[in-house]
Write a structure and sequence with these properties.
The complex is a heterodimer.
Chain A (H helix, E strand, L loop, with lengths): L7 E4 L3 H13 L6 E4 L2 H8 L16 E5 L7 H10 L8 E5 L2 H10 L5 E4 L4 H18 L17
Parallel strand pairs in A: 1-2, 1-3, 3-4, 4-5
Helix pairs in contact in A: 1-5, 2-3
Chain B lengths: L2 E6 L4 E4 L1 H7 L3 H4 L10 H17 L3 E2 L7 E4 L5 E13 L2 E10 L1 H37 L3 E6 L4 E4 L1 H7 L11 H4 L2 E2 L13 H6 L4 E7 L8 E11 L5 E10 L1 H57 L5 H32 L5 E4 H12 L8 E5 L4 E4 L1 H17 L7 E10 L2 E8 L31 H11 L4 E5 L5 E5 L13 H4 L2
Parallel strand pairs in B: 14-16
Antiparallel strand pairs in B: 1-2, 1-6, 3-5, 4-5, 5-6, 7-8, 7-12, 9-10, 10-11, 11-12, 13-15, 16-17, 17-19, 18-19
Helix pairs in contact in B: 8-9, 9-12, 10-11, 11-12
Classes of the chains: A alpha/beta, B alpha+beta.
């Protein structure tokens, strides 16, 4: 997969969760340009176009980041913090994937500006429905922001 | 006035003065010429005659009053009385005349007797007083309470041995304002000097009654002494303030024991909190971490069924459905366990809440579950309580959902939500006419995973009532149940000791 043209960056350390998410997105034909990274450090390298991703450009930032919270090396909250505190990345919509209500409360507590949440439900059908809606909203319905124009038009909803 | 009677040698009366007339109740005219013996009791007459004759022969002219001792005389009317007499003799013209001067000593004798009796009485009462004093002294000496009295000027009247032991010193008469300093009196904090004008004895001397606790820096005891003191004014028989009395006892050991109990209780409480927190943290992380593999099982079996279902044989499809069903139940279980753990982890956010509005909300939430059944909800007026409304809603939802669940076999369901008075506090109850249960299992009911019904009959995880109990405990309340097999069940709960039983005044707010 070409890391230059990416719609969705999926940050997920669990292979199973990643596969399930990919499966759900694929069903909705949203999986064409998904890039999966397995830890927070990789995610930041990808988004900030450095190290292994140095050839990437901020012009081609993903349209959506699906971010798990429990991640090796750099955790999801730290990743979110860095995304939202850098003008080059802060307009990228970030959807947090939480395992529980507590995790969501935790992120809200930091007031970091996550754009949305998916609580990974145990029920597969529910999970798929949620992934579908989030994917459709952020990739299809939502107008991408003009990142480098310094003007942000993306609706900051959650 | 003394009576004067003169008799001649033959004892005939020749002079009888006015006082004699009064003494003997006999007119002089009548007395004169008669023998003096007339005025002597019969039994003394012979002796008297002999006495006069011997007196005449002595040549002594005078015998003073009283030297003869008390004598007896008799009045004209026969009444005997006591006299003292002096006698003198003169010779006049060869005739001997004897003059007796008589004094009626009846009254004096009586007074003397009375005095003697009084003296004896006095001796007796003095003895009694001494005995009483000895008794009081031994009481004062042997009692454990310190007892100190002072007069209105602050002079100590009493300072018993216990007082000396407790204070660590004896009484010393000092100006009152130096008392607290001299005797080392401190407030119960042990460091603030006791204000002298507030000392119980000083207050008693002002006419006040006082009870207080005090710390004494007893110079003989390194750790000092805590006392409880009670003082009362001392008044005389006219009610005039004459000082004060203070009784005090050493409560150092009691206080130390109380402190020890408090410390142990606090430690125990702390340990329980720690254990509970550990357990809840454990429950939380286990159930949290269980979700991921569960999600994977559910996810992949779902994909399998969906994408390959048509090519699988019906048995395989059936097994996959069983897997799906199993994971769904386990998901529910994990969610409820998480919920239970969450109750323990979260602090209460209390606000005064009308329970009627919560109950109405729960009724509408449960409506879909009662579809097609005849369900009568009897909702009484409920109190306003200081509680966490989110958690109490969960309590009511669990109890009311249970009521709905266990009445399912009934053709007509009646679920009642009301309140009773439980020791002055409102207790809310949820009553159903469902299948009930035997009370011998009642103690199991609130334990995690404890179920009294088979899953085929009534589904459930066995966590709902444990959650109810945890929430109510967190509110400082109590939950209990009354039930009978096949006769329905009633669950009661109270919320804390400081329940606000103001439903009367707030009745208008119930509205909803």
């Amino acid at each position: 997969m070409n890391s230059r043209e990416v719609d969705i960056l999926l940050v997920e350390d669990s292979q199973e969760d990643a596969d399930l998410a990919l499966h759900a997105l694929r069903r909705e034909n949203l999986a064409n340009n998904i890039f999966v990274v397995r830890d927070g450090e990789q995610a930041l390298d990808f988004l900030f176009c450095r190290e292994a991703f140095a050839q990437r450009s901020f012009d081609h930032s993903p349209k959506l980041v699906l971010l798990d919270l429990k991640l090796p090396k750099v955790d999801g909250i730290e990743v979110l913090k860095q995304i939202k505190s850098d003008p080059r990345t802060k307009t990228i919509p970030v959807v947090i994937m939480t395992s529980s209500k507590e995790e969501r409360d935790l992120v809200d507590g930091y007031n970091l500006g996550a754009n949305s949440y998916i609580q990974k439900p145990v029920d597969f059908h529910q999970f798929r429905e949620t992934v579908k809606q989030v994917g459709l909203y952020w990739l299809v319905t939502n107008q991408p922001s003009i990142v480098n124009g310094g003007k942000q038009t993306a609706k900051q909803t959650s | 006035m003394d009576a004067i009677i003169t008799v001649d040698y033959q004892q005939r009366i020749v002079l009888f003065n006015a006082a004699a007339e009064r003494m003997f109740r006999c007119a002089a005219a009548e007395a004169i010429g008669q023998s003096i013996e007339r005025f002597l009791p019969q039994r003394f007459r012979a002796a008297h005659g002999a006495h006069i004759r011997s007196f005449a022969e002595t040549g002594v002219t005078n015998r003073a009053m009283g030297t003869l001792g008390a004598l007896w005389a008799v009045r004209a009317d026969g009444e005997e009385f006591q006299i003292e007499a002096s006698i003198s003799q003169v010779e006049s013209g060869g005739k001997k005349l004897f003059t007796v001067i008589l004094r009626d000593v009846t009254e004096r004798k009586q007074a003397e007797e009375k005095l003697t009796a009084q003296a004896a009485e006095l001796v007796r009462s003095e003895q009694a007083l001494r005995a009483q004093t000895r008794m009081f002294q031994s009481v004062l000496d042997s009692m454990d309470e310190g007892l100190v009295t002072a007069d209105e000027h602050g002079k100590f009247l009493l300072w018993n041995p216990a007082a000396e032991k407790i204070v660590g010193m004896g009484a010393k008469n000092l100006p009152v304002k130096e008392w607290a300093g001299h005797y080392g009196c401190y407030l119960p904090d042990g460091v603030t000097p006791f204000p002298t004008d507030q000392l119980p004895l000083v207050r008693a001397m002002r006419g006040e009654a006082a009870d207080c606790e005090m710390f004494l820096r007893n110079p003989k005891l390194a750790e000092g002494v805590w006392i409880e003191a009670t003082s009362r004014p001392l008044k005389d028989e006219n009610g005039v303030l004459r000082g004060g009395v203070v009784a005090f006892r050493d409560v150092t050991r009691t206080k130390a024991a109380q402190r020890e109990i408090r410390k142990l209780n606090a430690e125990l409480e702390q340990r329980v909190l720690q254990r509970t927190a550990q357990l809840e943290a454990f429950t939380y992380s286990v159930s949290h971490d269980l979700r991921a593999p569960l999600r994977h099982i559910a996810g992949f079996s779902g994909i399998l069924l969906e994408e390959f279902g048509p090519t699988l044989d019906p048995n395989a499809q059936h097994y996959l459905q069983r897997i799906e069903e199993g994971t769904r139940k386990m998901g529910l279980l994990v969610d409820e366990l998480l919920n239970l753990a969450r109750v323990g982890r979260h602090s209460l956010s209390l606000q005064v809440t009308g329970l009627n509005s919560i109950v109405q909300e729960v009724v509408s939430i449960l409506k879909p579950e009662s579809g097609g059944r005849e369900v009568e909800w009897k909702i009484a007026e409920l109190p306003f309580v200081d509680c966490d409304p989110v958690l109490i809603k969960q309590v009511l939802q669990n109890l009311m959902a249970n009521a709905l669940k266990f009445t399912r076999p009934r053709s007509r369901t009646v679920i009642e939500v009301g309140q009773i008075d439980e020791n002055g506090h409102p207790a809310v109850f949820v009553r159903d006419n469902g299948v009930g249960f035997s009370m011998k299992y009642a103690d199991k009911l609130f334990g995690v995973f404890q179920r009294l019904h088979r899953a085929e009959d009534f589904e459930g995880t066995g966590i709902g009532l444990a959650t109810v109990q945890r929430i109510i405990q967190k509110h400082g309340g109590r939950v209990w149940v009354e039930a009978e097999l096949d006769r329905g069940a009633t669950f009661y709960f109270t919320i804390g000791a400081e329940e606000q039983t103001q439903q009367k005044s707030n009745a208008a707010m119930v509205g909803a």
